[in-house]
Amino acid sequence: MIQLNLPQYKINIQETDGKKRIFDILRRRFVVLTPEEWVRQHFIHFLVEHKGYPSTLLANEVALQVGDKTVRADSVLYDRELHPRMIAEYKAPHIPITQKVFDQISVYNLLLHVDYLVVSNGMQTYACKMDYQNMSYTFLEDIPSYENI
Question: 0.90 cut: is pTM over it?
Fold first, then answer.
C-alpha cells in the first residue's frame, strides 16, 4: 500500500486464505485490506491518537436506511449521549475527491444531521462544519480536535 498524507501508526496486518487483512480497532477484528480500508484505518488512528477522539464513540460501516435501500457510512463519531456528530467518507488514494463524494456524504447527513462532514482519500482531506440555521457550511483548514467539536 502507498504512503498516505496521514500519520503512520503500528499497523497490524495478517494474511489468511491468500488475502491480506488489517486490524480494525473499532470493529475489533481483521477486515480485508483494500485501498479504501487502508485509508479508513489510517484516518481512525489519526483521529484517536492525534486528535483525541475516543475510540468508544467512533463506529465504522454504520448502516443507514435510505428509502428501501441500506447504505453504509464509512465512519460516524457520536457524542457522549450517542447522537451522531460527524460523518467521515473515505475513498481509495487513487480516487479523486469530487462533487459526487460530497453528494454521497450529504445523503447520509440527511439522515444523521451531524455538525461535521469529512471526506478523505488519504492524500487529500476536506472537512466542513454545518450551519443549519443559515443553511450553509464552512470548510475547515484542519480536522478539529475532539475537545473543540
Answer: yes
